[in-house]
Amino acid sequence: GKVDGIKISLLDKHKEIAMRRRLPEGVRMYTGDDFNYPELIAGDGIGASENHRQSHALLGIFDAIAPAAAVALGELAAGHIERYHEILQPTVPLARHIFGTPTRFYKTGVVFMAWLNGHQPHFTMVGGQQSARSLQHFVELFRLADAAGLLERPELAAT
After folding, report:
1. Bridge-partner residues for 57, per DSSP?
2. Which of 5, 38, 45, 76 has the fewest CB atoms found within 10 Å of its own CB?
């Protein structure tokens, strides 16, 4: 009765779903799975059926994909599951890239996205962490962000 939920980041949707199904009624699953989040958030089905279980998102990638996530979650809440997946699915390759090994450097990608979108005037991180990823990594990140429609001002990002 005192536990609101648990957070896990198994990066294995089948294991998370199995664990989620074992939770007591009323205990939430908070997913940290930045690789399989669309399916985990959508859950076992739309509606208030007794068997409907979904994972709530506590995701690092949501900062980088906030515009798409906001619209997609609105579509999910309205019951438009296909549109929800249409919006979020293109963000998955970007998330997998940002959280690629070594995963501990994912913040570099999140900060890079913030800089590309004009949310901060520089791409400098504490301790020089902006150099934790290669130029090729950032080029691919840029390409994936563009493919997912996440460059809010493409002309600024290109500059």
Report:
1. 31
2. 45
